[in-house]
Specification:
Elements lengths: L7 E5 L7 E8 L6 H5 L12 E6 L6 E7 L17 E3 L6
């Protein structure tokens, strides 16, 4: 499934406790303009599976941006099938 603006995803932190957090997609290859990249307003994306995110946190700041985040694939050798640090995935389906 292709990421689109406004979709909720899960993001695994790349620092600290590597916690999973909810995030919203704020930029995709279809929404980031060459003009915005050229003037430095927004970073480029490496592929159509990379996205810009707003990551929600329970702290006072409420969240933080992450840029050019790759889609993560679960690692079979880790407990809970976690995705690699600094990546996003779709939320699991609830039966």
């Amino acid at each position: 499934m292709k990421p689109t603006l406004g979709r909720i995803v899960h993001y695994r932190g790349k620092q600290g406790r590597l916690a999973m957090r909810p995030a919203i997609v704020t930029g995709t290859v279809d929404s980031v303009t060459p003009e915005g990249i050229a003037c430095g307003d927004v970073p480029a994306l490496d592929s159509d599976e990379h996205v810009h995110l707003w990551v929600f946190t329970p702290g006072a700041s409420g969240g933080f941006p992450e840029f050019n985040v790759p889609l993560g694939e679960p690692r079979e050798h880790q407990p809970g099938q976690e995705i690699p640090p600094g990546s996003w995935c779709w939320p699991p389906r609830v039966p």
